[in-house]
């Protein structure tokens, strides 16, 4: 087996040179073929998905997991649509920036280029197979895919379609390589292939991400968790603050950009928290409040240290009354996860101070944390949200799958005089 | 000891918030104080350096190593000058780019911010202590320094000056922390402090870099080696190609941007290599040639597979005759180190093709590889040259010590309608 996985990943690596040299039209042609073939093969994909669904039934997977696993005509059509949308993005490769003419006579610029080979390790949702492949291809990268074992047959069916699309366009099918086994040992082998893989992107729970990070020396783009805060400043507009709170906490709870903690400045705590208590949208939200919150709101739990670190992903929130702006920033720095944090304030200076001092991936003034998303930010489809600072920080579009080299033009220019 | 190192690095981490919030004038004030105090303390630093020099004598260090270790008035003044030059660079923090107004009503932009805490692990040259500290400070970062044990007393003297300069400016001295021991175990502990260190930068031999990379899960900026190529295309201008070869190979040999391999297209091999044979600047360069090279040049060694991978760092070069452009690019891709590669050609299309296809950190047309340097590229002082693609690729200035967060402005804007 060992030999096999290494051979497979090595072939993917070799094929990366082909995809890295294609122009935008050629890459889009491949993407559109993938979309067409996904639609043409709906029945076959559904059939393979049935095997996974039957196994899920046998293995007693939760209804939520089964829902994530299920593929039907509508969902496969949506996958095809997503691939076509990725084709329509600007080419992230070949951009020239930072042009400078230097006193020595050379001309220097930066040119964006693909990273090389990206390995995606992900759980359950089979649509990640086509989404991730399409994003990597658009950025000129080859990709190794390792999906969850529960989705193995579905992922294989989708990967087969992608291979066919690549081959129809006369490029090696290995450019998109699905690891053809559910053997866990294969993951460990993949993590050790520094020489063939340039970047690892784990998508799934915190456990998966930590496992990947701790067991590999390949760079990892990490998205740990979203413990997002809204701070209601003493000069907040209550109406705006309340709408942001409702949107952030209850419009969708299972997502990383949902709010998990509300901080309220002492001066307005009584007034604002009374409104929270009464608001119809928030009636079924379970509240963990600090002592001062408990003095204002009735029928709530007391907040523990763990509550402030918690990513509830549910109709549940921690609330803390803070003395001032500094305490709010300190709280966010200590308990936050570097994802997205928001201030509600009508004071422009305080808003700017918040943007400056909160070094989360996304800092917002008077906007809902739920906007923290590649699509909403105009980056196009999103490959993930990085909560660590190296290479990319925050929502990552295809651009995050490229790097920049320097290009230099001279006229036989030398650094020292040659006589 | 274990407790100690963790405490020390933790304090540095805590102090990073202070430096991250200073404006450019405040940071420059600190840098200029460092420069002043370096000059005021020349004698004290020289005295401490004497201890290292005596130890070097006792331990039989090579003359080259002793030369790197030595500090005198001129060298200390040069260190002060370098710090002042770093102060004069543009502030890399707080830059706003990529501003977009989105259909939802939010305004999105990116803002450059410090990385946090950077750990530098380096060998011999004590000037790295002030250079690295100044670059990290300029980018708003705290820094942990771990120099070579042979330079321990010199580094301590310089770090003491920096601490004093920080404290004179009312910020914590811990912002620049020198690990106060030569104990090797301290390095291992430092490498394990993911929670306090955002980036590792090893500076030194390949062994040090691999050690750091293999023993830490903190992101590492890696500079492995410079196996730089010059390819003389069949439509090269021989005069330019020759000047670039001389500058690249003999102007300075012990540097990573020196040439290590010459590739010559078959069509012009006989003519160009005859000129190489005769050139007075190249008489004492040891040549390892391929079979075809050996047919043209006399008195040369034959090139082995290892020669093509070699970073000689000496008056030594591998020469290979290639059939065509494709073979040259393939050779560079296979044997190169992703540092800097150069084509000599008068055909603009072929030059552009080279820039496009060679994905080394630096690709050049008709310019000497010796230009591959942060200062020459206009980046200001250089913290290193990355030969891996994540985060930074190629010469790195202060900008590489920052990242970008997203900042968002709304007017109580929500992603979903709240009624």
Notable traits:
419 residues, seven-stranded parallel β-sheet, 43% helix
Write up what this structure looks like.
- Two copies of one chain form a homodimer.
- In chain A, helix 2 packs antiparallel against helix 6 (127-138) and helix 3 (42-58) packs antiparallel against helix 7.
- With 419 residues, chain A is an alpha/beta fold.
- Chain A is built from 15 helices and 16 strands.
- The N and C termini of chain A lie far apart (60 Å).
- Chain A is globular.
- Chain A has helices at 2-20, 24-40, 42-58, 63-69, 73-88, 127-138, 152-168, 185-191, 206-214, 238-250, 266-278, 291-296, 305-309, 325-335, 348-357; strands spanning 96-101, 107-114, 117-122, 142-146, 176-178, 199-203, 228-232, 259-265, 286-289, 301-302, 316-322, 340-344, 362-367, 384-386, 394-396, 402-413.
- In chain A, strand 7 (228-232), helix 10 (238-250) and strand 8 form a beta-alpha-beta unit.
- Chain A folds into two domains: 2-222 and 395-407, 3-Layer(aba) Sandwich (Aldehyde Dehydrogenase, Chain A, domain 1), CATH 3.40.605; 228-371, Aldehyde Dehydrogenase, Chain A, domain 2, CATH 3.40.309.10.
- At the A-B interface, strand 2, helix 10, helix 15, strand 13 and strand 16 of A face strand 2, helix 10, helix 15, strand 13 and strand 16 of B.
- Strand 13 (362-367) of chain A pairs parallel with strand 16 (402-413) of chain B, so a sheet runs across the interface.
């Amino acid at each position: 087996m060992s030999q096999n996985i290494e051979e497979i990943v090595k072939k993917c690596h070799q094929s990366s040179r082909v995809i890295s040299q294609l122009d935008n039209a050629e890459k889009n042609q491949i993407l559109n073929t993938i979309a067409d073939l996904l639609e043409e093969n709906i029945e076959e994909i559904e059939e393979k998905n049935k095997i996974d669904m039957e196994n899920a039934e046998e293995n007693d997977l939760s209804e939520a997991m089964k829902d994530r696993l299920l593929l039907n005509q509508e969902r496969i059509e949506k996958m095809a649509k997503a691939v076509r949308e990725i084709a329509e993005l600007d080419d992230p490769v070949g951009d020239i920036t930072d042009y400078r003419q230097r006193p020595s006579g050379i001309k220097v610029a930066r040119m964006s280029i693909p990273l090389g080979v990206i390995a995606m390790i992900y759980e359950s949702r089979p649509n990640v197979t086509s989404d991730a492949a399409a994003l990597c291809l658009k950025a000129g990268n080859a990709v190794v895919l390792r999906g969850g074992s529960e989705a193995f047959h579905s992922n294989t069916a989708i990967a087969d379609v992608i291979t066919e699309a690549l081959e129809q366009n006369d490029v090696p099918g290995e450019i998109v390589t699905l690891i053809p086994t559910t053997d866990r040992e294969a993951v460990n082998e993949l993590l050790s292939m520094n020489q063939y893989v340039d970047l690892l992107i784990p998508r799934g729970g915190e456990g998966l991400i930590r496992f990947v990070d701790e067991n590999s020396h390949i760079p990892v783009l990490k998205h740990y968790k979203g413990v997002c805060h809204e701070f209601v400043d003493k000069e907040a507009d209550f109406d705006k603050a309340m709408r942001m709170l409702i949107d952030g906490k209850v419009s969708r709870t299972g997502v990383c950009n949902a709010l998990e903690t509300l901080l309220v400045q002492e001066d307005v705590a009584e007034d604002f928290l009374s409104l929270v208590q009464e608001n119809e949208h928030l009636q079924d939200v379970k509240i963990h409040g600090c002592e001062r919150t408990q003095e204002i709101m009735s029928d709530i739990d007391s907040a523990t240290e763990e509550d402030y670190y918690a990513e509830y992903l549910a109709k549940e929130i921690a609330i803390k009354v803070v003395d001032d702006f500094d305490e709010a920033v300190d709280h966010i720095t200590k308990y936050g996860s570097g994802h997205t944090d928001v201030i509600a304030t009508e004071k422009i200076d305080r808003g700017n101070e918040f943007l400056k001092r909160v070094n989360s991936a996304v800092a917002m003034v008077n906007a809902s944390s739920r906007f923290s998303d590649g699509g909403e930010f105009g980056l196009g489809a999103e490959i993930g949200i990085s909560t660590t600072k190296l290479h990319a920080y925050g929502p990552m579009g295809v651009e995050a799958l490229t790097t920049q080299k320097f290009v230099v033009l001279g006229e036989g220019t030398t650094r020292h005089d040659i006589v």
